């Protein structure tokens, strides 16, 4: 059950008013975090939560989710004239019914189509830990809203790391559940194959509270999770930036000193994953989802997003189906090979790049691929995965735990134990 001590229902109205005052003043770091706020609705006494496990929680919502009476732009301008949503997305309805107070739609990569978080239409929020660096994405504004203390919880999506990457870059917790755990009804898609609804917060407990409210059936996502960790020697750790490598080694040392078992071994399934062209699956599905706008108003797109959608033509329909077949085979193999262990890796192998490092397309594409590599394992394998922050000297990294599907609650409990070790 959710820990209701995480947020104070009695002070939530004052806290919400303070958030909107900070945004109005464009207080340092808060610019471009939200595409639009729900201030009038949020501060209405008629919408003040009275009860529920999330009563008192301030929640930001990625601009992919329908919120009744507001336009869902998905970070685009071609959807800015769409009619307002007639009802909440299913996940948002569950949050509201549980007493959550919704702050607004947060900024994001257009159509959620990158792991870096840049948006040329609505500008890009700065990293909460270093304003010279990017926030990570695609749920950029959501992560920053939590890191700056504007929101207690941020709701996002995760197609290849889009909750866990910005969580790692901004020093907070990011959780990607099993895909089937949370309904995506009323959430605009990037890739139906790889999208999951995810959550970010300052603590694992807060992520768990939101997950328990949004999940369709908690009992179905409580399969046992191994407390033995395995670091794959053939994937995810071979080319870390030195500061990331040093911090990850320090995190492992902390874990082993606390009595956790950490071993190193290759996983064959991770070599096979290299044959799965995730880029083609997302390109085809994104292109199909927004075909009308792609054909009629391509000039309105972020050019980098448009170029990825064009890549759908590089391979045919048979190749697309073969990719889906390959993924279907990888998922059970991942579960079998992982057996009685939980995968342990750095969330991302790099620090958040500086804005100046992603000006050029070549550098942007390189950094984007690096950021997406490790967290995408959970999306391809339909697993659950959580990024926990770990500070070493002056560097904060994400330490990522990944397990096969339907082990969500156990994985969150294991992540809480790491959180205590890292504190």
TrEMBL record:
Segments forming domain Amidase: 48-411
Annotated TM spans: none
Domain of life: Bacteria
Alphabetical list of SUPFAM superfamilies matching this protein: Amidase signature (AS) enzymes
Coiled coil regions in record: none
Pfam family, one: Amidase
PANTHER family assigned: AMIDASE AMID-RELATED (PTHR11895:SF176), TRANSAMIDASE (PTHR11895)
Protein name in the entry: Amidase
Organism for this UniProt entry: Sulfitobacter pacificus
């Amino acid at each position: 059950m959710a820990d209701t001590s995480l947020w104070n229902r009695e002070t939530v109205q004052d806290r919400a008013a303070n958030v909107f005052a900070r945004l109005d003043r464009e207080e340092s770091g808060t610019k471009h975090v939200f595409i639009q706020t729900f201030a009038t609705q949020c501060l209405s006494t008629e919408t003040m939560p009275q009860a529920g496990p999330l009563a008192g929680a301030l929640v930001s919502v990625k601009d992919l989710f329908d919120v009744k009476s507001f336009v869902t732009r998905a970070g685009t301008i071609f959807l800015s004239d769409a009619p307002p949503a007639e009802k909440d997305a299913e996940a948002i309805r569950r949050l509201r019914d549980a007493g959550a107070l919704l702050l607004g739609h947060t900024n994001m990569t257009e159509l959620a189509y990158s792991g870096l978080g840049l948006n040329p239409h609505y500008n890009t929020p700065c990293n909460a830990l270093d304003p010279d660096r990017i926030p990570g994405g695609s749920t950029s504004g959501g992560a920053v809203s939590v890191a700056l203390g504007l929101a207690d919880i941020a709701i996002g999506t995760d197609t290849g790391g889009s909750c866990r990457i910005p969580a790692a870059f901004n020093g907070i917790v990011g959780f990607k559940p099993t895909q089937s755990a949370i309904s995506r009804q009323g959430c605009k898609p990037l890739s139906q194959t790889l999208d999951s609804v995810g959550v970010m917060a300052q603590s694992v407990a807060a992520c768990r509270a939101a997950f328990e409210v949004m999940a369709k059936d908690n009992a179905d996502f409580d399969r046992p999770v191994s407390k033995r960790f395995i670091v794959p020697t053939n994937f995810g750790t071979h080319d870390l930036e030195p500061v990331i490598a040093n911090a990850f080694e320090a995190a492992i040392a902390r874990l082993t000193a606390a009595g956790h078992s950490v071993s190193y071994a290759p996983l064959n399934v991770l070599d096979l994953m290299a044959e799965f062209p995730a880029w083609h699956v997302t390109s085809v599905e994104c292109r199909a989802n927004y075909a009308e706008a792609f054909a009629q108003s391509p000039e309105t797109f972020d050019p980098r997003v448009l170029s990825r959608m064009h890549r759908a033509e590089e391979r045919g329909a048979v190749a697309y189906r073969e990719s889906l077949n390959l993924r279907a085979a990888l998922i059970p193999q991942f579960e079998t090979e992982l057996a009685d262990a939980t995968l342990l890796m750095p969330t991302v192998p790099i620090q958040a790049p500086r804005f100046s490092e992603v000006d050029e397309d070549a550098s942007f594409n390189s950094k984007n691929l690096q950021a997406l590599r490790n967290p995408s394992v959970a999306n391809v394998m339909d697993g659950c995965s959580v990024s926990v922050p770990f500070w070493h000297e002056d560097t904060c990294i994400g330490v990522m735990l990944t397990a096969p599907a339907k082990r969500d609650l156990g994985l969150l409990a294991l992540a809480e134990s790491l959180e205590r070790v890292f504190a």
